[in-house]
Amino acid sequence: MNNMISTILIVIGLVFNLLGCIGMLRLPDVYNRLQAATKCVTLGTCCLLISLVARYGLNDFGIKALIAIPFIFFASTIAAHALIRGAYIYGIKLWEKTVVDEYAEVTNKTEENQDPDCK
Length: 119
What we know:
Layout: H1 2-26, H2 30-56, H3 60-90, H4 102-107
Helix pairs in contact: 1-2, 2-3
């Protein structure tokens, strides 16, 4: 039973990782790409780590996997937030079909303040 649960979690994790990689290739701008990288790949990697716990139990592998899960969640979200904020402050423009820019309302950023060389 544990092997079946572990195999299902591995397949789910691989599918999420694959979708995250495809999203990084297909999405139009850096902000959407980082969203795909953060959400899909984090969930996929955590499913793979949970599959280790299901397969091997709470021995050395399982405990290390359980310890790694919070680190992956926090590190990937904080890193993505820092990268997106840095890209926005640097002046990398949003996709032309973006409807709402809530961060511009907070920072009072206008088109005149953006770097003209960034596309």
